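Researcher: Please predict.
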Amino acid sequence: MYDNLDLRLSKDECEGIDLLEEVPQFLTCVKVQGLNNSGPFIVGYLDRLRITITDNNVKINQSSLCKYYHGNNFKTLTREDTEMAIKQISEALHLPFDHAIVTRIDFAENMSMENDEKLYYPYLGVSQYYDRLEQNNGLYFVNNKRQLIFYGKVNEQKDKKNPIPDEYKNHNLLRFEMRLLKNPSKQLNQPQITAGMLYDKKFYHELVLRWYNEYRAIQKISTRLTNLKPTGSTKSLIESLATFSILDIGQPAVLATIKEWSKTSQITRKQASDHRAIIKKLASNQPEMKNNELVQELDHKVRDAMKFHLSESLTVSLN
């Protein structure tokens, strides 16, 4: 499930090796990039991995560990793949990269869907602590520390004019990706995260659950109205119909309209706040509604991916 990983190996872990002198010999396309805040630095490539070397550390960033190990970034790295990839890098550079500090983690899985991936986006509503952003290339949930992204992997590679492996052609491949962009150790309640921890069973399984729970926390929107309870209360009837309308239109679209009203001074900030509160309350009150087939399919695919990656050992509660 690993995709991009940013790693930084300190000189202190390298037993007195002169990094600027010795590491470039194992790289291709080596270029001296001048000076940064730490002094001179060199950039080169280990196959598809971009390596930056300074006097004090060796960094891997701005490149895909999957593409390095698998030859493409359609597949993601399993726990065992990750261990092999880190060992392969260590052997190639003659450095103990299992001791490298992890400064970014992209954790993802592909799901082969029955329909084009864009059909699923409208049914993924808001998620607490994130801003929901619809982009041309996918659906983003963002804050200043991490991102959750849904996008079509095949379509992404077509746009980049990259070859599509035969096994993925004619597939609606939806990727759900969790990116821990800043201080992943703090986000995962760890003093620090080393590359060797990435293939520790317990740590890996906690990441799988984090990925799954981030998906579960996204409010799912249903447009299929299966039950309207009989009521003698006009107020209850109106609230039920309002709930159905919000879910049918899409909560993000309704909230965006209210935001526009507020910014253009058509309503006051207090009125906008009251509107948002009642809309979120109504949208969350949907016990009588069944998810439509698209939501059910996506729920099942994400859950199956989670169960698959947990299946090798730890027993966990899936409730």
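Model: The CA atoms of residues 251 and 280 lie 8 Å apart.
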